[in-house]
Amino acid sequence: MDIFKVLSRGIKAQPKKNQPGAPQLLPSAGAKVNPQFFHDNVGGSTSKRSRKRKRKGAQANNTTESGDDDSDASDVDYFAPKPTPEELAAKKDAELKADEPKKQKPKLMEEDECRQLLKSHRLKFTVLAGRVQQAEEATEKPSKKKQKKNKKEPGEKDKKKKKKDEDKKQIYPQPLNSFGELKYTYGVHPTLADNITRQGFRVPTEVQMGSLPLQLRPEMALEKAPGVEDVKTERGIDFLGVAPTGSGKTISFLIPAIDAIIKRRAEDYAPEADEHVLQAIVVAPTRELASQIVNEGRKLAIGTGVRVVLMKRTLRLVAEENKQEETEQEGKEADKDSDHDSEAESEPEEVVGSDEEEEEEDSDAEKNEENKAEGDKKSKKERPITRVDILVTTPKILLNFLCGGEKEKGKPRIVKKTLPTVQSLILDEADVLLDPIFRKQTMGIWRACTHPNLGMTCWSATMASNIEALLTKHIEKRAKRTPEQTPKPLIRLVVGLKDTAVPNITHKLIYCATEPGKLLALRQLLHPVSSADSGPPLRPPFLVFTQTIDRAQALHDELKYDIPLEAGGSARVAVLHSSLSDSVRSKIMARFRSGEVWVLITTDVLARGVDFAGVNGVVNYDVPVSAAAYVHRAGRTGRAGREGGVAVTFYTKDDIPFVKSVANVIAMSEKQAGKDIDEKDTVKAAQGSVQKWLLDALPKVAKEDKRKLKVRGVESRRTGGKATITTKSSWERRRENNRREAIEASKRRKREAQKAEKEGGAAPVEKDQEWTGLD
Ligand SMILES: Nc1ncnc2c1ncn2[C@@H]1O[C@H](COP(=O)(O)OP(=O)(O)OP(=O)(O)O)[C@@H](O)[C@H]1O
């Protein structure tokens, strides 16, 4: 080793912050983050506990900024003896133990303190359904005349009333102050609790603070809350969690699911019984997200004996035959009562959604696997049943199992099997799972879970009110068919403002006059000429979203040689979409996670749920088709409270109908982050990105058009034409077309000549088919 080099490292002056060469605050820069989003000072003073937490957080931030954190000392002192890995592990364990509160009788917070802490973290709980009073009122149905009259009431009045009612329903349950409380206050199994701390999670995020006590021990969480006399929790609760992207919703549903299984197993222990009984199903819209959930679940379940498995086509589960008549009847009832969304229930047995629009298309690899399996019926019969406690699945693949095969064109599907042992159904990204794209499939799975005490939890960063209403109505209806006839309380937690924000990242809207202009702008981001041109710093790795698979592919073809060979070349740019096979998709994911791929071009298949801790930025090459789509795409950066993420959105004049809603999300995000304080004029916050005068001048888009845009996107980008991604001039494209046509014509002539020769005749003479040369 060069000793001079080592010595010089110790004396080399570190560049100061904000100077060239100084380390930048980037999401991938490290793990020193505070995963909590909000710390408001409520009413001028915060509670003792929250003050304590805030000081802790502030300290962590200060030490990070000043750079004099203890843990960094050994990095600076190059001659200090380095601890062995065993010593480091022992030190970490000791630190974790010191963080835990001593075993003591659970101490609950007083009402006021609780209320202030919840407010300071912007946690808002509402009982959406299942209050005993409500259930009684619901039985006294208003007459049809009265209903009509109510509908005619002026909208403003209705809105005010609705808001008042919602405020009334708000409740203040106990929050989780530290992960240590899980074990000692909420009775979580010690192995599971240890697995949580071992993953390095120190401070619960807001959604974890709010949701874990209620899911684990609802009666205790509501013990000191006022106004909950009519919220009966003996049979558990149903839960709806709406929290920002990257806020830790995954472990919020996995912890209670795993813990419930451990407890049930301990209660119903029978030496001869099968240890693994399917008790929980997690449904996610894409395969990438489903396998990510499996990984998270397995880490949490280490040493607990709980098996978390990813659903596959070839997997066999323990299921019962469905009593078909009963299901039909159920479907008809649901259909009769449906008044706000006919699509949801119009064909109760036809449970599969539109194959065309689905993100989850069958991959070749899976089809081959299936064909092979079908070809050998004998081996299929012999295939053993998979022992599983928690099943993670995409909707279609589980429904195919329940219906006994794939959908035949034009035929309605019947759910032939039920899953009576499932006691917990979890919908991750619930708004998309209950959207028309997946709704019939999700409903089919829900109906197949026939346990009378089935618990339902739904999660997303965005939740439209019609989806929420649909969910509430179905929970209530289902409850009427149970022996108790009353629904469990459905409690909704909203973290921050509902639906609208990605608060901890920088947003940027860039106008490009033409489609090729977008390509130039993207290249400008990749290779900025000067820092002034480059806008916000966008460093690899980053994700680029396009509207369609074809566009993703075309953009990849354009960009793959943009990284110099010396820096990795075309291996640094990759494309991932749903028409690639499963194995290719997972290989690309692994390469992106490991840092080998710097620019990953993709479609909305990666927009939801997928967690890449190191992603520094997101580029919306094509504008997202709705505010929710923007939230999810932009939320792939700045995960777990990491700051420094950037979301850049290009728009052309074709995108005008979408820009307003995107700008509003940006404004809300900045407002939530405290960057803009203008209460009334939300769009003002986005002035840095898009001009307010321009936004004001934009036409309002009709609801129906908005719906069409959401499903189809910008039409010209689907069909190609003007919106084709290419940097070639029209002259070059024409020349290429001519050349291609000439080659094809020549091949055709050759084929025909050969054919004629074989048949013994003369070669055909082509009329008017001369090559006209290059244009
Ligand atoms: N308490 C915590 N402290 C630190 N990091 C956490 C904590 N809880 C979760 N994380 C990490 O935060 C990241 C994001 O979590 P997760 O994927 O669950 O977010 P999410 O809310 O489901 O996001 P999305 O809405 O995009 O699906 C993960 O890498 C996870 O390990």
UniProtKB/TrEMBL annotation:
SUPFAM superfamilies registered for this protein in UniProt: P-loop containing nucleoside triphosphate hydrolases
Entry's Gene Ontology BP terms: maturation of SSU-rRNA
Compositional bias ranges of the Basic residues kind: 48-57
Superkingdom as given in the UniProt entry: Eukaryota
Domain Helicase ATP-binding: start-end pairs: 230-481
EC class of the enzyme, as a word: hydrolase
InterPro entries: DDX52/Rok1_DEADc, DEAD/DEAH_box_helicase_dom, Helicase_ATP-bd, Helicase_C-like, P-loop_NTPase
Pfam families per record: DEAD (PF00270), Helicase_C (PF00271)
Summary of subunit composition and partner proteins: Interacts with the U3 snoRNA and is associated with the 90S and 40S pre-ribosomes.
Role summary: ATP-dependent RNA helicase involved in 40S ribosomal subunit biogenesis. Required for the processing and cleavage of 35S pre-rRNA at sites A0, A1, and A2, leading to mature 18S rRNA.
Domain-related comment: The Q motif is unique to and characteristic of the DEAD box family of RNA helicases and controls ATP binding and hydrolysis.
Protein's name according to its UniProt entry: ATP-dependent RNA helicase
Originating organism: Pseudoneurospora amorphoporcata
